[in-house]
User: Fold these one by one.
Assistant:
Number 1:
Amino acid sequence: MGILGGTFDPIHFGHLRTAQEVGHAMGMEKVFLIPAASPPHKSGEPVTAFRHRLAMARLGVEPSDILEVLDLEGRRAGPSYSLDTLRQLKSQFGPTADICFMLGSDAFLDIRTWKGYEKLFDYAHFVLIPRPGYDIETLRDFIFALDASMEQTGEKDIYTMPSGNRVIICKSTLIDISATNIRRLAGSGQSITFLVPEAVRNYILEKGLYRAHGKS
């Protein structure tokens, strides 16, 4: 299974296309999108209520054959640390569950700031999606710098951690959409058509989300 976490404020086609495309490319049975209830790296920044972000994520994945949304971080108190989420998933699906943690290369380059980041590789494979403007050679160098005992497999861009789990660079269609820009556009009354699924756009309009963002 794959998992893709994020604030999803709001979920957009960049999130959805990446999750769907990488999931199919790697033969995943399911890709779970997990909205963060209390994102630790966004402390001090205004974040839309979890119930709205969860609802939009569920609307966004409806057309997909493999995407599904889990609300487990919304049912857990405190900051939404990835380490706690991976432990919970292993407990929920069993110790033999093959979990692929999907994230953008930009987020991975900051992984040393994450809670217990060294232990993350004990619970899951990491699937890295290169982002626009990020040099892939820098990403490769960073992977090797994380652990001196990292081994490269016979396949390019697949690396094995001491835990036996792998770090995999998996390219996908680059859709450079910014949730920040979507909030700004929606707040100023401009169109967000073709940036988010129509059901998500309707939800934003119905609930009056992001109105304050147009005033900044």
Note: The first helix runs from residue 13 to 25.
Number 2:
Amino acid sequence: MRHILLILIFSLFVLRTLPAAELLKNGDFETGDVTGWKYWETYPWDGDGAPVESPTHVTIAIPGTIGTPVPPATSGFFALTQQIGHNGTARGGLYQEVKVVVNTPYIFTGYMAFYGDDIGDVTIVGILDGSWNPALAFTTINKKYIGGNTISSWMEFSLMIIPSKDVITVFTETRQDWTHGDAAGWFDNFSLRPVPEPTKLLSSQHLKENLLQKEKQAQEKQTKADTEKRF
């Protein structure tokens, strides 16, 4: 009986702590390309407003050539790069829509790095509550960014969302607002998973204590019955 109870408790613990399934396709970019992702851009783009003088495009490169961080990938061989060459303004990136369960928390994690040489340079990762809409990339609070005249090493990020719709969108963005210098956003090891249910240690402990108490009572009852039989 005791062995059965211990197996039950262990099984409950294992089920609670099993890792949740990965929801993103090619989040580590180890395919060497952007399989699973879709390209987007706002073109023509100029952060200073109209008229747009020197529009260009965000180039997707695996691996990139501008502002390579050290190491060039956080694991494996490849990392995503979104880069913009000099003398052009651009805004764009990648996105991936994922089916989810409404009102269930999800966590988006990964790494990002950045190269910029002007205040108008920025790179972003974020989540939209719903299908892709580039206009919402400006307003969503579920995002992390690095920008300005700076060169950053790899930075780990973590974003959580409780969706109100059955689709959420993970997106990246790199932009250069002025025709000056270069900009590049680097990304690696993206992961999107449902938040695991917290292990209810207190409840498990109470369950274990209750089961052991019942086992003890059963043993005492059996001992009393054996004693009465002797007399």
Note: The longest helix spans residues 201-230.
Number 3:
Amino acid sequence: MQKQGLLTEVIDALCCLPGVGPKSAQRMALHLFQRDRGGADNLAKALQLAADQLGNCKKCRTLTEHELCSICASPTRDQYLVCVVESPADVWVINQATEYQGVFFVLNGRLSPLDGIGPDEIGIDQLEQQLASQQITELILATNSTVEGEATAHFIAQLALAHHVKVSRLAHGVPVGGELEFIDSSTLAHAFSGRREIE
């Protein structure tokens, strides 16, 4: 059966989503148009509105339709405690899983010289302006524990220390409920180097 027309366009468009291949995209499209036309209409409207209005927060660079996101605009957040993350998804995860009450700075990437991604591409200049002009008391580095994430954290740490700002890094190690025999050697090495005294 040869695929053609608008349905094929929808299926091809859905394939841009992470983890969605042609079969999954086909199932989604067929479900929307066979069983949930209202859902398809709502999805189309929401996506178009978001595509037209979503931008980056002027201060932290996360996604928002306003000049400042709800976190940066909140009077209850500690504006002098800044958590540096790689993506807006990290902001969501930290907000849902922790009681963190500071603000964020979203890099929207990480240093990767092989891919041509340097400090300018991830907003380091904007972060440095905040370090220089504000009274940030602590910078929490919450980049991923990949080679690029570690390099990015090290680069930012040196920058923050040059501005006399306290820097901390998220702990890496054995996950809660994890068994040592199933932990990879790199994670175990991080856990040992990041061990803390029991008081």
Note: The two ends are 69 Å apart (CA to CA).
Number 4:
Amino acid sequence: MAATDFTQWNTAWVADSTILHARLAAWEGQPTVALDTEFIRERTFWAQLALVQLAVPGEIVLADPLAPGICAVLGEFFARKGITWLMHAAGEDLQALRVSCGVVPEPLFDTQCAAALSGIGAGMSYQRLVEQVTGVALEKGETRSDWLRRPLSESQCRYAADDVRHLHAIHGDLSQRLAGLRRADWLAQECARQVANELDQQPEPRPHLALRSAQGLSGDGQWRLCRLLHWREVQARASDRPRTWILDNELAATLARLSAHERGEFDHALDNHPKAPRKLRESLWAVVADPLPVPADFVLASVQGPGDRDRLRRLQAAIKHESERLGLPEGVLASRRLLEARMQHGRWPADTARWRLAILEPLLAPLL
């Protein structure tokens, strides 16, 4: 299918791999390329890539990853050296590109992260950031659109093109702000961490800590819950289905309370839960019945007592004061979850950026 012009600003839909290769070859020497994706993951574990938007100043390409050969051409392009990739809130987009194209584009300039570090605002939407930096108000009508349908509508194509049209302007503005604040390296560290986490693809080693229900379990129960959640992760990845479609959190906590002597209660729990994975009954029972002892270094999810809450409030007060001094939005320097991890484990998470550690450790060490 030949490239078809849709709107102004030289925007083209491309579903032919030969045409896409030629268009991207013409971008040789471009130092920055704006990049976004549209994907669907309501019924899958892995994001289903539905559209890839690329832009250099004055030209936008809407590449159809459902067409033969397109993802291979994109993978080659993303592996090209010398390009900084401009994206907004890149996390899930990176996963969709890795799964479908086999490459995670790097180095990355994440404009949402850059806006936070430059003091504009934390967690800003693309539409809000575009309006604040450029004064342009974007339409939001296709936010929940079906991006897997073909052909896409004119409205969908305009919306998709707008997602990359303004990234170069935002990049220029935020780069100047970060340079003036001497925080360009902060952003580079944060973006490198995003890329590294996507490339690593290791499951969360302590998934039980994210579930409030874990706090009411014994040590054995929490260890069993952790193993059940690891089992769920393996099943979800292998079957490409959402985690909670395999085993929802409530049922996981219920099963974690059982032991190898309670097969009847196990069967009763599965038979009476509407979304239980009954076809995986024996595999699931093997996890519950496994008598593996709790490792000595296993981290328990604990209920915070008054002393813990008081200490957390002191840490948050210190963070708030330092954030105000640095002109950082609330939550950017250190989230509550990061502080709780430091309190509980006695160390910062391994992927904590160096710039954060340089500020947080001397600031909070006396309080910790």
Note: Residues 1-7 have pLDDT under 50 and may be disordered.
